[in-house]
């Protein structure tokens, strides 16, 4: 099925979720506290690393080769992983032991990533439209929508935070730089159309099966995980509403390990 999806309209539709009062309050607490800014940047780095690895998730070279700019996207996600962790280490060395973040078990990147991936996998299976290519495309789309909304909201909160100007400037610069590249990633639905047009002649059976499953994918298979992903980060931001308890929990994760 051909998918008509207006990414800009979907972003505008989902953006108000991050305007909920508790999410706003959480963002403000995050952006004003060096401990949480370090934690957030390191969590982002972890999530971006998984985004980089996900490019290999298609596991089908004939079709992966049809997806435009895939190596570029992989390279950019790797850059995001590195730039965020470098900024965190430079700005907040007190929460690193050498290169290693002190509270790795509390980071949100992997928890969030796996939650959205697995819920989406379950949903596609239940709908009878699961394939690893379908999971890759819809989950990647969801992450990219979420990233644009969340990173923008955090950058805005940091811009007006009481952090020292040099810290604020570096954090905003890193996030804005990433956002610029992420805007190109959200076009994943365009890849859907290009893949559907793949000439079938010389394809392997495996690739043909993936294209058959792709043809079954519907518009809501992109929209639903995107909303799921945004709602997941809204709950994540709400955790900063109780900064004392959340910080204690993060610090306790090191002692428990
Ligand atoms: Fe990224
Ligand atoms: Fe991306």
Give an overview of the whole structure.
There is one protein chain. The chain has one domain (7-256): Heme Oxygenase, Chain A, CATH 1.20.910. Strand 1 and strand 2 form a beta hairpin. With 257 residues, it is mostly helical. It is 74% helix and 2% strand. Helix 3 runs antiparallel to helix 5 (70-91), helix 3 (34-54) packs across helix 6 and helix 6 runs antiparallel to helix 7. Strands 1-2 form a two-stranded antiparallel sheet. It contains 12 helices and 2 strands, in the order H-H-H-H-H-E-E-H-H-H-H-H-H-H.
Helical content band: over 70%
CATH fold group:
Heme Oxygenase, Chain A
Number of helices: 12
What CATH architecture do you see? Up-down Bundle
Write down the CATH class. Mainly Alpha
Mean pLDDT, as a whole number? 93
Question: What would you call the structural class?
Answer: mainly alpha
Integer count of domains: 1
Q: What value does the Rg take, in angstroms?
A: 19 Å
Unreliable stretches (pLDDT < 50, length at least 5) are none
Measured between the Cα atoms of the first and last residue, the distance is 48 Å
Bound molecules: fe (ii) ion
